[in-house]
Amino acid sequence: MQLNLNFSTMSISELSGQEQQRRDSLQKLRDLGINAYPAELFPVNSYANELKSDFEDGKQVILAGRMMSQRIMGKASFAELQDSTGRIQCYFNRDELCPGEDKTLYNEVFKKLLDLGDFIGIEGRLFKTQVGEISVHVDHFHLLAKSLKPLPLPKTDAEGKVYDAFTDPELRYRQRYVDLVVNPQVKETFIMRSKAMNSMRNFFNERGYLEVETPILQPIPGGAAARPFVTHHNALNIPLYLRIANELYLKRLIVGGFDGVYEFAKDFRNEGMDRTHNPEFTVMEIYVAYKDYNWMMEFTEQMIEQVAQDVCGTSEISVGGKAISLKAPFQRVTMRDAILEHTGFDIQGKTEDELRAACEQLGIPTDPSMGKGKLIDEIFGEKCEGNYIQPTFITDYPKEMSPLCKEHRENPDLTERFELMINGKEVANAYSELNDPIDQRERFEEQLRLSEKGDDEAMFIDQDFLRALEYGMPPTSGMGIGIDRLVMLLTDNSSIQEVLFFPQMKPEVFEKKGPELTENEKIVFDILSKEKSMDLNALKERSGLSNKQWDKSIKGLSKHGLTKVTKTDDALTIDVVG
RNA sequence: GAUUCCGUAGCUCAGCUGGUAGAGCAAUACACUUUUAAUGUAUGGGUCCUGGGUUCGAGCCCCAGCGGGAUCACCA
């Protein structure tokens, strides 16, 4: 029946007015014989920013990008073109673009059928307007790709004040492509991220270390204490884990004879999400043979300074309004001294009970499952960590916290481990790596006992890794650095979501708006279709619906275009349309 | 997980003690040959996140849910 006709066109009526207009423009372009999505390459030879920095009057240029604004003044117009480097103004003159009688290209195509956001290609020459704005005098333009959805359009005035900024975090993260188009500083953040990784890569390559790749799907998720994601391999019919770290594989490569290996690795942890944690994140880990953690501290501080130079152009950065100097060397403080300084308590030689008592005294909650290492870690995390704004190496961690780290050469309760703290947060973590296979096996067994006590993050025993160590691993120092957190520092962002292109979010629900009438709408429509025309109140009586349900239903029917309400002097009448 | 705030036009946001949904930009039409948040005139544009409830009447009040932000807790 007739209903079907109405409903079949519904998907089109779901479009906003502006979306519909753009589709109409697209059709008109096609009617004019213009392909809105041409296949051939466009021979770009210039970019907005370099044209502005190296102005050369009259230079012939070909460039392409999105048209982001249009100022039409009769026979002449200005438009802004945004390419990957920035924006440049373009000048369109009707009688130059259309020298003959036919002004369609300017009057119709440029002025009416092009929309903001469309990709166009420009051929023209550089000049400066009377106001001094560097612009391209357009000789020819080509539609390269039509945009069917209107972009948000932030505007900046002469004083640099931004209006109508696209700021809603949900929309920005879910539609990062839009965020990147309209928010230049967002793009800059990700360019800096790429520079940081390139800088580190260069730093390592110059020293002869090898970039490698190791498995992401691991039968035993080792190298860290964390809950993994599990998946299943069909052909092998075994569970596989997404890696929580790549440490054990990189050490196997040192066993195999490489002097230095590093990997930029995506790790995965099935834990909470907040402004500093995303379920997948990027870590750089590097292992260098014949070195210890003292060497690694020097290596790390040099690397950080170099990265800051390459990314920010300076080692003096500002984070959340605080000035931080990333110039090497960094301060070194043992964990014992750090705790002594900030609490007055000396952890040296203390028993578990004494440590627990100290925690109570400091107001730090404890529970019976915490061992010595955990208690010390709590004190440090609670009372010390936040104080290290300037880069500081905290060294010599308790043994229980570090099952893969070599025992300290002077104190068997400690390990040769450091963490680099910047802005009160951990940025890097490094060891003199444990290479004694017998000691390593005992440490794993200790982890197993923790696991049996209910610690679901205790490490698994990796027998193959132990076998590798038994063949012999040279003394080695390893270091891991959280790339996301480092980039947060360098770009002065306090949320990890700002430095990930696509932070994890709950899946978006794309509502399917069914063409079906709701039950209530059907009830109302059935009554009405028998009568064709009714008094509104009479219909409401007959329907027996509550006020709210009645209201929804009657609005829904009008929306579907099935009914029409007309107002006479003192009554409302409803009719079936058509 | 707890607390708290938010969800209204394509975008940014108003919306009074509950009384027929507003502005700027964007869009449409017209004018305008070096403008620049261009300007002037006119016009169109809404599932007020969803579902219940209270009410003669809900964008607003109540309940439940969805999504997001912030803070805290947990966790490397």
What quaternary form is this? single chain
Regions with little confidence, pLDDT below 50 for 5+ residues: 1-13
Mean pLDDT: 87
Distance between the termini: 12 Å
Shape descriptor: globular
How many strand segments?
23
- Spatial ordering of strands, largest sheet: 8-12-13-20-19-18-17-16
Major β-sheet profile: 8 strands, mixed
Counting helices, strands and paired strands, the structural category is alpha+beta
Beta-strand share of residues: 15-25%
Helix residue percentage: 25-40%
Number of helices: 20
From the alpha carbons, calculate the radius of gyration and give it in angstroms. 33 Å
Summary keywords:
5-stranded mixed barrel, 8-stranded mixed β-sheet, single chain, 578 residues, globular, 20 helices, alpha+beta, RNA-binding
What does this structure look like?
- This protein is an alpha+beta fold.
- 37% of the residues lie in helices and 24% in strands.
- The strands form six sheets. An eight-stranded mixed beta sheet has the order 8-12-13-20-19-18-17-16, sandwiched between helices. It has a five-stranded mixed beta barrel with strand order 1-2-3-5-4.
- Helix 9 (184-206) packs across helix 11.
- The longest helix has 23 residues, at 184-206.
- The relative contact order is 0.08.
- The chain binds one RNA strand of 76 nucleotides through helix 3, strand 1, strand 2, strand 3 and strand 6.
